[in-house]
Amino acid sequence: MIMNAAQKRAQLNREAILSASPARLLTMLYDRLLLDLGRAEAAQHAADWAVASENLLHAQAIVTELSSSLRRDAWDGADGLLGLYAYVTTAMTGANIHRDPARTREAIDLLEPLRTAWHEAAAVGVPPTATGSAAGSAPVAAAAFGAARFGTAPVGAASFGNSAPPARPAGTSGGMLGFG
């Protein structure tokens, strides 16, 4: 069977997701989330409401995935992160309903420091869950979350208690998040 370029790209994306570490999966989710929000904001400024809505809905699906994978029992800052996810979801919903690029920008401004912190953590090998098995992981997570929220996260200090989505069996799609 001969694959066209789109099929080949989709296959490579599936393979990248299936072979990615939990930390890499999380950074991929954040990358796509911020890409969707950037596209939505640009579409809103261009008054392309269908494209803006499509990207905002996809971004909401990613935040829903992040929320559902959050291990609230893993560290005491998890409820704060869950609250942030709820707030950002409300902002994205309002941005979509009211066609308000300022609300989209607010979501970007709140989430970008988290994406940066996750990339820094993944680069130095900090695990994406605060399970309590590594000494001091929950305090590091809480400090990183607070610091990331205010734009001062130290390199490598992030462990927000998100667990990666469960591994998918080979040959299955990435689901509604569009990775597949």
Rg on CA atoms, Å: 17 Å
* Main beta-sheet strand count, sense and barrel state: none
Return residue spans where pLDDT drops below 50 for at least 5 consecutive residues.
Answer: 130-160, 163-180
Given the C-alpha coordinates, what overall shape results?
flat
> Number of helical segments?
6
Q: At CATH's second level, what is the architecture?
A: Up-down Bundle
CATH C-level class: Mainly Alpha
CATH topology, which one?
Four Helix Bundle (Hemerythrin (Met), subunit A)
Number of domains: 1
Report how far apart the termini are.
19 Å
Tell me the β content: under 5%
Give the SSE string: HHHHHH
Q: Oligomeric state of the chains?
A: single chain
Summary tags:
disordered C terminus; 180 residues; Flagellar export chaperone FliS; Four Helix Bundle (Hemerythrin (Met), subunit A); FliS
Secondary-structure blueprint:
Layout: H1 5-19, H2 22-45, H3 49-69, H4 78-97, H5 101-124, H6 137-149
Helix pairs in contact: 2-3, 2-5, 3-4, 4-5, 5-6
Structure notes:
The chain has one domain (21-163): Up-down Bundle (Four Helix Bundle (Hemerythrin (Met), subunit A)). It contains 6 helices and no strands. Mean pLDDT is 77; it is low at 130-160 and 163-180. The longest helix has 24 residues, at 22-45. With 180 residues, the chain is an all-alpha fold.
